[in-house]
Amino acid sequence: KQAENGLSGEHTLWIKDSARVWKNRMLLDWDALAVDQVVQLNLTWCPEWGNKEFGVLDVWVDAESQAAATEMQRRIHVQYQRTRWLPGWIDHVEHETGGRGIVTITLFGGVDKSLHERFQTKGYADIAAAENTLRTYWKDHDCMQGEIVEVKMIDNPPLGSSGIQIRWQAGALLDGFRPGRIVRLMRHGWPRSKNPPEERLG
Known about the structure:
Elements: E1 12-23, E2 26-28, E3 40-44, E4 53-60, H1 63-84, E5 86-95, E6 101-108, H2 113-117, E7 123-130, E8 143-153, E9 161-170, E10 182-187
Parallel strand pairs: 1-4
Antiparallel strand pairs: 1-2, 3-4, 5-6, 5-10, 6-9, 7-8, 7-10, 8-9
């Protein structure tokens, strides 16, 4: 009832025997739960979700366990983004002779700060063309290597923007490097593995 966002009203939660109860960053038995206790829940899909029924994977009893779970989820997010590369949109393209050019890109917001920090300095980066869905084809093969030659921070960026704008110079421009198009960016040292087939465009 006190939640400002997300679920509201009355819901039925299924807590199965496989759900984990956390306290002091350790797994406990069900007797660690008590009536009127304030807890945080990790919800999952349930067969009757359409009728406001949800499954529960984890129950965090104390703030320490909640903080530990938040940090673990942050690490999962960082690894996910590093594997799939950061999304951004192309603002401008400066065409040069021989198919070369400089592409101006603004990174999307909504990712961990540590990932954006890697793009606030000059250096080499690979960029792959993507669709508006953020999906790529085979980005580690369909990308182009280049160098970040300038980094600009935008004051009061609009919603969805990181405020980080880079100018990236490539030896050859791909067809997908056009103003208004979406790209994925990788700093050297990040994983070059391809996405699972269901996440790629065929």
